[in-house]
Write a structure and sequence with these properties.
- There is one protein chain.
- The two termini are about 30 Å apart.
- This protein is about 35% helix and about 20% strand.
- A hairpin with a 5-residue loop joins strand 2 and strand 3.
- Helix 2 packs across helix 4, helix 2 crosses helix 12 and helix 4 packs across helix 5.
- With about 350 residues, it is an alpha/beta fold.
- It is globular, with a radius of gyration of 21 Å.
- It contains twelve helices and 14 strands.
């Protein structure tokens, strides 16, 4: 059996083939459909992710994120989160690969990059939540954290809302000053602003930082628009949070994966009764979300493997439409299933 491999060049060709706007829209719509399926009980929520934390030689984590669609496939993303990567190694903070296996046989059927996929699906998840909870006429977006994730946060939200201005902040001067260049493809005006101003003026805020454990919040709990919606993206470790607890306690809070969010997201500081229904239920019953519009709302986005599985489906569909990728025999399937040395083709004896 062959494995369908999308290389780095194939991923670039996928983006070129349909354009980044169309690709993002397809992922947003696929996530919205998939979340609603979970909310209706037609699809399973992914298990909790797990992994290793490391302090040396460079602080970070390495995680595995599984999702199973019974009778069809298992999707497994392995992902490293290493905040020092851009500065020390010239590599993305988040590096990963996504693999798909046949649920009946366990055979590896597809393999692709997880770097772009993760950035796109994280932006898409925020767009789904914002579509449900934010004011439809939102025009000012605030971004706290101006790294790679901020680019796709802006991209996804710019396709959902009539944005006119973007206010951005990052503690790293180079990141905040280069963001306008990296986001120029959206055609939106980008202005550097401190977090207090962002909270005060924005209709929607996305926080996507690498703040250290115990070093938050990255936003003040100050004056804000009555209808402010916040996408909290960066909390992904026990003790790592971005928002003030006082703000969380006043807000309607929904999480992508409630159990995981209470372990390591913003919700880790809240009791279960202090949070609202999960995003999957809101996607299945939008009226529940629309009741909260006009008030302070927070989406606690920890990221889970169903999002990766759904985004992978989109990438594979585009690749199939345009004949992209390679078919490679990675796994050893012997001619005799009971003989691991039944190699294909049989080796030539030595000396002949």
């Amino acid at each position: 059996m062959e494995t369908w491999v999308l290389s780095r060049d194939d991923i670039a060709d996928v983006v070129t083939a349909v354009g980044r706007d169309a690709l993002m829209r397809r992922v947003v719509d696929r996530l919205a459909e998939g979340f609603a399926d979970v909310g209706r009980g037609a699809r399973e929520l992914s298990p909790l992710r797990d992994g290793f934390e490391r302090a040396e030689p460079v602080q970070g984590i390495f995680e595995w994120m599984p999702h199973r669609d019974p009778g069809d496939s298992i999707t497994l993303k392995t992902v490293g989160y290493s905040p020092a990567n851009p500065h020390h190694f010239g590599l993305p903070t988040i590096i990963g690969t996504v693999a798909r296996y046949d649920d009946s046989t366990g055979a590896l059927t597809a393999l692709m990059d997880g770097v772009l996929l993760t950035a796109i699906r994280t932006g898409a998840a925020a767009a789904v939540a914002s579509r449900l909870l934010a004011a439809p006429d939102s025009r000012v977006l605030g971004l706290v954290g101006a790294g790679a994730q901020a680019v796709t946060q802006l991209h996804a939200l710019s396709l959902e809302f009539p944005l006119e201005r973007v206010l951005v902040w990052d503690t790293d001067r180079a990141h905040r000053e280069s963001f306008a260049r990296r986001a120029a493809f959206t055609g939106l005006d980008v202005e550097i602003a401190d977090p207090a101003r962002i909270v005060a003026e924005a209709d929607i805020v996305s926080t996507a930082t690498s703040v250290a454990v115990g070093a938050g919040p990255v936003l003040p709990d100050g004056p804000h628009r009555e209808h402010l919606h916040i996408n909290a993206i960066g909390a992904d470790l026990v003790g790592k949070t971005e928002l003030p607890l006082s703000l969380l306690r006043r807000a309607f809070v929904t999480a992508d994966h409630p159990e995981q969010a209470h372990r390591e997201g913003e919700c880790q500081r809240l009791a279960p009764h202090q949070t609202g229904p999960g995003l999957t239920l809101l996607a299945a019953e939008p009226a529940l979300a629309h009741e909260q519009r006009g008030a302070l709302t927070v989406f606690d986005s920890t990221g889970f493997a169903l999002e990766d599985a759904l985004a992978m489906e989109v990438f594979l569909q585009v690749a199939a439409e345009h004949g992209l990728g390679s078919r490679i025999q990675i796994e050893h399937h012997p001619a005799d299933a009971l003989d691991p040395y039944a190699l294909q083709p049989a080796p030539t004896p030595a000396g002949r």
